[in-house]
């Protein structure tokens, strides 16, 4: 390359060659080398240098063309940004799909989700308790405490997902743990509605947001063939916490009161988070450059349809978790006691272990989206069937079936999204974007249902709202499957 051309392409080429030549000089043997081996190594170095120079020339030509089109002189900065981008997105190789380190991530994320989603799934316990503690507040107002928690969990996912891609998983984890434990401890001192909003709604919600999305993105990078079952095992933490925390409330509330019950829960969560902090290890190299929002994703119809479907699913799926206990006490001809209403909530959460593992097991074999569609459709049908339940035994039976399929909706949601993402380095951003969309569904869904109950004095219209949301979401999910299937050139039986 002549001097004029070298000057035209800028300094990066010279700098790169200089650094490369210096490194090679340091690596050369000082004595005892044969003539033939020296010649062979020189040829290899010359080929390496020539390849690097050709690549830099190609980058410079592309950048020069872009500068001429945009009437911008920033050729050098363009070259440097492209070199930096390539160096910060090194492919670490295929996921291990097993082994201690990979499965230990499932254990870590299981504990994290037991603290976040497990506590959220237990909100029906607190909804029932706060109705008596704050009798002047309506069901709509009390449900806002739990809805704010879930809203922040998803909404903050946009930012924490990108921070995870950039290599800040550990910082997100520490911040989330502080807010999570601090919020629970502050809740133990609350006696007024606005205090619960700040402590349980705002503070715990921020903590969940810094923990949940990064942890799911983490476990997804360790698995490919077994990704769905790995996410299912991790998501089963919502069942673990959803059973443990209501049991603690049932046993401890009558004996030690609300403040110390909440502090006992804080201690359990502190131990779980400490174990997770030791086990969690990011695998993917940081992707330093990249947007918080990847607008290109919304140009993919399968992604956009999936985002709409996710919004509709989460608009309706948590209605039962918030209002089942209340329904058993004032929606049946023969109401049950407060303790027995918690038993129903335990059944609803406990059977979720099956719903989080079985669908994900089959999802690895036939495709997460292929399993997700019938699971969501059946969940919608079950909500409509709830309208016909008028007895306590019938409500227990309904809780078993809905607990299984609603858990399947929650666990397949992130698994299906990972199946629609080809580049795992973008998984955190894409997951965070959908989480933000979903956040507005969980913020408004339960309060809308509560407002319907307050206005009509009946649960029937609220049940119809929940079932319709799930049914319509199944339609959009089917659209996402069809688009992805055609893009991959697969038939109806293709793995999507």
UniProtKB/TrEMBL annotation:
Residues 1-11 have a biased composition (Basic and acidic residues). Gene3D superfamilies: MFS general substrate transporter like domains. It holds the Pfam family MFS_1. One of its GO terms (molecular function) is transmembrane transporter activity. This is Major facilitator superfamily (MFS) profile domain-containing protein. The chain crosses the membrane at residues 102-120, 140-160, 172-191, 197-219, 228-248, 260-280, 301-324, 344-362, 369-389, 395-420, 432-453, 459-479. It is found in: Membrane. Residues 1-51 are annotated as: Disordered. Residues 32-41 have a biased composition (Low complexity). Belongs to the major facilitator superfamily. Monocarboxylate porter (TC 2.A.1.13) family. One of its GO terms (cellular component) is membrane. Keywords: Membrane, Transmembrane, Transmembrane helix. The keyword Transmembrane helix applies. It is a multi-pass membrane protein. Its main location: membrane. It comes from the Eukaryota.
């Amino acid at each position: 390359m002549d001097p004029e051309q070298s000057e035209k392409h800028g300094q990066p080429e010279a700098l790169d060659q200089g650094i490369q030549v210096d490194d090679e000089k340091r690596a050369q043997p000082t004595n005892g080398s044969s003539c033939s081996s020296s010649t062979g190594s020189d040829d290899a170095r010359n080929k390496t240098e020539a390849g690097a120079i050709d690549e830099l020339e190609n980058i410079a030509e592309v950048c020069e063309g872009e500068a001429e089109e945009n009437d911008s002189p920033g050729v050098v900065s363009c070259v440097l940004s492209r070199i930096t981008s390539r160096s910060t997105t090194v492919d670490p190789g295929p996921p291990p799909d097993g082994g201690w380190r990979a499965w230990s991530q499932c254990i870590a994320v299981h504990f994290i989700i037991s603290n976040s989603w497990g506590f959220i799934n237990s909100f029906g316990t607190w909804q029932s308790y706060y109705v008596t503690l704050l009798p002047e507040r309506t069901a709509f107002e009390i449900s806002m405490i739990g809805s704010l928690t879930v809203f922040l969990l998803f909404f903050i996912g946009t930012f924490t997902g990108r921070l995870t891609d950039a290599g800040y998983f550990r910082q997100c984890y520490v911040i989330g743990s502080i807010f999570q434990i601090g919020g629970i401890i502050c809740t133990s001192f609350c006696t007024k509605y606005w205090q619960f909003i700040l402590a349980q709604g705002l503070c715990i919600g921020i903590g969940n947001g810094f923990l949940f999305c990064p942890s799911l993105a983490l476990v997804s990078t360790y698995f490919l063939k077994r990704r769905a079952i790995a996410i299912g095992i991790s998501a089963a933490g919502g069942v673990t916490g959803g059973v443990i925390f209501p049991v603690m409330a049932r046993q401890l509330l009558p004996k030690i009161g609300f403040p110390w019950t909440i502090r006992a829960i804080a201690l359990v969560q502190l131990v779980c988070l400490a174990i997770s902090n030791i086990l969690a290890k990011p695998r993917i190299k940081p992707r330093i450059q990249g947007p918080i929002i990847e607008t290109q994703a919304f140009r993919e119809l399968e992604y956009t349809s999936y985002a709409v479907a996710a919004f509709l699913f989460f608009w309706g799926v948590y209605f039962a978790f918030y209002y089942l206990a209340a329904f058993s006490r004032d929606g049946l001809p023969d109401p049950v006691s407060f303790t027995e209403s918690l038993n129903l909530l335990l059944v609803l959460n406990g059977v979720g272990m099956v719903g989080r593992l079985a669908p994900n097991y089959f999802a690895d074999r036939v495709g997460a989206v292929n399993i997700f569609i019938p699971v969501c459709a059946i969940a919608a049908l079950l909500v409509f069937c709830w309208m016909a339940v008028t007895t306590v035994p019938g409500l227990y039976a309904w809780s078993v079936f809905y607990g299984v399929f609603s858990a399947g909706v929650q666990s397949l949601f992130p698994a299906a999204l990972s199946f629609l993402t080809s580049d795992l380095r973008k998984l955190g951003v894409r997951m965070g974007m959908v989480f933000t969309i979903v956040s507005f569904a969980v913020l408004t869904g339960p309060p809308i249902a509560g407002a319907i109950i307050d206005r009509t004095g009946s649960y029937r219209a609220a049940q119809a709202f929940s079932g319709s949301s799930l049914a319509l979401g199944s339609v959009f999910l089917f659209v996402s499957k069809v688009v992805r299937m055609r893009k991959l050139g697969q038939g109806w039986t293709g793995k999507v």
